[in-house]
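Methods: example folding runs. The two proteins below were folded one after another, and each record is reproduced exactly as written to the output file, sequence line first and structure-token line second.
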Amino acid sequence: MKALALIFIAACFADGAVAQTTCNRTVAPGGAIQKAINTQSGLGGGTVCLSAGTHLTTDAISLPSDIKLIGTGSSRDSVVLKRSGASDAAMILSGSGTTGTEVRNLTIDGSGAAVYGILLYQTQYGTIDNVSIDHVKSISVGMVQSYHIYFFNSYIGPDLGQDLAVSPHFWITNTDQVWIADGEFVGKPRTLTHEGDGGFAMYGSTNVRIYGNYVLRGGTYMASSSGVPSSHISVWGNTYEYSNEWPMDVVEGANNILISDNQIRYAFHGAMVFWNANTIEASYNLMENNNQGGYATCQGINNNGSTGLNVHDNAANPGPVMCTVP
């Protein structure tokens, strides 16, 4: 009976959550989340579940290797992990050397104090699934020197960037093998924010795949880090609307980039800019009514000094599809 008491079966989750979850430990609102995690980690790993309700935390929740943190409410909105107090730490941290961590089926509320919603630092094989993130101070999800990170079926809200710095939803630096799919990511209106807020920022990262997402008022930026360019980036099947700058911004030697089957509408600048980058394929993209700010050379693809371009089967209204930046 004691063993059975440690198992909780949660079925029929909404928002694409896991259908069944076996919980080694369950924490009710007001309970000690980190203590439960540390105890389970000492047993070799396992699943710590958060019951429905609001869980307050004054500091980062640290996930050791092979620990899963999963909400057991009927949807991700049923379980809220909320910052309490003025601490500016991350809400959830997977630190140096960790592997096999997971976060699923919960909402992260930074209360305007937490710098990161989730920070993965030197993490391998981390999974984030069916998570909602909002009210963070700067970066929703940070991935630094990490490997094989999966981010699926999630929502990131517009209330970020409260430190008045440029604040992308995803900050991906010196990281390899990333999948970001089937999410909805919303940035602030341009009148309340900076160019570059919302969306994805990649520096010196490789093998990043961004697909099947809806991005409102955000874009995708690919650049170098300490001289190492971002490379082998695939961005396909996404919808970008009302981006505050360039929905596709490929610069600083970024190379081996695929941008395909995206729909890009109403961006403040043109749909794409390629600036001193190389080996880029842009194909089957639909670009409509961009360059709302009137600063781009054309509303489609703007090129400045990039080489090895394979641009085909795109559509732009109004045209042309491609132009050269003076």
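Second run, written to the same file directly after the first:
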Amino acid sequence: MVKAWSVEWLEGLLPGEAAWEEIAGQLVDARNDILVTNEMPFGFWQPTKRPFDSDAAREWVSLHERALDSLSRLPVAAVISSRPVLSGKRLVNEGFVLTQGRYEFIHQKHYFPSEPGWEEETWFELQRPGFDVIKVAGLTVGVLLCTELMFVEKARHLGKLGTDLIAVPRATGTDHRLWKTAASMAAIASGACIVSSNRVGNRSESDPVFGGGGFTFDADGFEIASTSPENPAIALEIDTAITSAAKGRYPVYVKEPRLTS
């Protein structure tokens, strides 16, 4: 049995500050567990406006690079997160896992919103396509980065690869309805547990307000728990026997159609 943690972390978070020390203290008895962070968790959210700001992007990239050491020191077996990485004239949003300080690539974000507060289509591109799985702390894990959760066929694909856990780092607003509906459907379609984390707060009145509300769903699509200001870190126990059995239930077992000539 492995636990996976969902959290809500403050907008503008910097490693080494008081808030970071509180985060480490929230992970009680988590040394054998997986932590799923929010999307690109450090500093203030940058892709709020057009055009792409190369100076701000480079600073954000540098901050996340420096923060890898702090992430690796958290009292958990593995950390699943994402970070901005320079790529040509824009960024990529790279999902990764840190296990005992070892960095391993998982997935780059494919789908980018384009609206005030979330002008990611202008800031990001895709360099390495693919939705693959990876072994983490004894679980088969896939990652859907924020908006990707809305595309249920990607969750189904990860389920076909045997995924036990779909980790969903997010940077979303205060309305959780669509996200929880999408998480439930992703679990139903994949037979995997869903663990998602989100940032909370905002930098200024002109910037988006992030709504926290990390959540966990079991492999049957039922919500188990959500984070809150009073409870900013929650854990879901994942039993691989249950997620394996879920692969044989409806609608996960339904096969893709085969065209005949």
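Comment on the second run: Helices lie at 18-26, 54-72, 120-123, 152-160, 177-190, 240-246.
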